[in-house]
Amino acid sequence: MNGWTGKMLRVNLTTGASSVESSEKYFEYIGGKGMANRILYDEVPAGTKPLDEASKVIFAAGPNCGGSAPCSSRTTMSFLSTFTKYNAICDAHMGGDTAIMMKYAGYDAIIIEGKSAKPVYIAIKDDDVQIKDAASLWGKMTMDTVAEICKAEGAGTNVVTIGPAGENLIPLANVLNNGGHSGGGGIGAIFGSKNLKALAIYGTKAVYVADSAKVLELNKYVLEDLMGSNNNHVVPTVAQSWSEYENASTRWTGHPGLTWGAAEGGPIDTGESPPGDIPKFGYRCQKAVFDWGELAEKYTVKMTGCATCPVRCYASLRVPELEAKTGVKAAHANTCLANGVYARNNLLPTFQDVAEPGDGKFMAGYLATTVADDLGLWDNYGELNATLNYFVKDDCALLKQILPPAEFDSIPWDKREAGDITFLKDLLEAVASGKGELSHLADGAYFVSERYKNLLGDEFLHSSALTLWGPLGGKRHHGNECAAQVGLLTNIIYNRDGMCHTIVNITGSGLPYDLQKSIIEEIFGAGALDKPKAYTPMNESKAKFAKFGVIRQVIHDSMTLCNWVWPMTFSPRKDRGYKGDLSVEAQYMAAITGQAWTEESLNEAAERVIQLQRAMTVEAVGSTDMRNLHDVVSNFIFDIDPDKKAFEEGTVKLDRDDWQTALTMFYKEFGWDETTGAPTRATLEKFGLKDVADALDAKGLLPA
């Protein structure tokens, strides 16, 4: 079998049994997200709560994983949300080696079900599957757990584990594999509810492809002609000898004079990495400096990342001075928002220096992200930090109202006032402990709002301080600030943050707006892409552009490819006119599987997944009225910049009436009922989902 292994593993923690089943019936869902979503639909009844024994977690990878395509070792995990309204289906996506080890062990998916009576971990070595005692691991931090399991199972084992936050059933608990690659969405609490400490995988088998010569040809084409840096930023931050453009906001940060300052053997200059020079590709993204600022250069050991990924977006740092002073581990690697998020706003009013003048804020951020990852505590793209800040502002006015006096006094506020960065460690440990009222601030913003409704009212969920996409509790993830209505529309598909980088990969590419506009309008029509902070009313081209955004996200999470890099809408090459190639994903599918995949058939398969997920969300909501019960967005999106009107230059605010027009146009693109936003029978049957339509009909959940 090519691409897919044709097998999936089922592990029942209640009975201790494991079995291997065929995965072929799920191939029309591509793999990864699509496969995992369909399994969850088939096996977890609507109304199940995330921490119920009947709840399940599905790990799945796509046919591209293990076949050498760049940035293809991504794992999708599907489960029920622990932290957003309705507890509806959500996905988490994780890098590292988990997916590729799962494929090498022989499985397209792993289904974890039931509940163990005691702490355990699952050990998988090809066909050998065992459930092992984890009593000695319970209570350990994530990095120590990885080390202990690798000692027991062998070097090279990929370990997916929870920390104390997951054990304590904190809704914002995640899993991490091998110390830095995390999967959020509250999956850590579900592991904890099942007494599952970790999943350890080691595989030695092959993943076969139908046309290996074509795959290698595509790899060369993508690396030489199409791929930029992280988020497919195709323009460097500073002018280089080969570049026509530069843009200080991109993640193509590598340039002459910028080093991996703590590299073994001495600093390594990132230099120039012009398009076509594959051996230098890994120097493009010196993301430590992008995330942390200039001080991070001296502590950067290297940039690391996921299997088969040349981009290297994970900043691997070693800060021995921090460990000497605070006891927090010196070495850590992470990417994106977790880096530095807890050093923002007012959790600390000032920052004590650690090793040199002015390094306090960097040290605080590095300490906090290291501690949070070790605890297995998820920041929810900044929501946890925003919630904590919301309660400690104004001299802790809100916090004093929710905490019993003894609990409030137990927090070392003297450290905070002194700018002692270990205050952040104490605070995060208290949140992850599951003890006291403070830990409920990690329930997720929606449940925080419900718990303290009399205190917070409606303002909390709708405030610009939290920047949620809506009162459901999902964090805005590249929304109205990114391509106006287009970016915001990509958020409402989900039951958490949008997790969709397709559009921001375009707007953040670094290319001049007029060049972006000409390429995008050639694909989607006139008016598809607005100039930043100079928005126009909704139109059909924007609706098509928004649909493309989520379709590609599903393709990437199902094949599986990294949506932080794909799609190849643009290119860094001037000789291509900076145009990318949107047919490449289908070309990979055809070369790997040997089947006649086209861009159109791949889009159709991805839309089938979206239709299924939307139907599952309708079941969770218990109503067809998705427009008013699910797709509601936060008030701050319409109320920011009160001295400006929507569509005036200089603001990203949207107009309420125009947003309703945007929803209607978006619903039309997907064939949903244009009044309610729920899938119709005709649309579900068009995508081979008659059984889903029948189930909705039986519950009165099809639009009239």
Which short descriptors sum up this protein?
6-stranded mixed β-sheet, 37% helix, 704 residues, single chain, alpha+beta, 17 strands
Structural overview:
This protein has 704 residues and is α+β, with helices and mostly antiparallel strands. The chain is 37% helix and 11% strand. It has 27 helices and 17 strands. It has a 6-stranded mixed β-sheet with strand order 2-1-6-3-4-5, sandwiched between helices. Strands 8-7-12-9-10-11 form a 6-stranded mixed β-sheet, with helices on both faces. The chain has a 3-stranded antiparallel β-sheet with strand order 15-16-17, with no helix packed on it. A hairpin with an 8-residue loop joins strand 4 and strand 5. Helix 1 crosses helix 20 (540-559), helix 9 runs parallel beside helix 13 (422-432) and helix 20 crosses helix 25. The protein starts with 6 loop residues before the first strand and ends in a 6-residue tail after the last helix. 59% of the residues are buried. The mean pLDDT is 97.
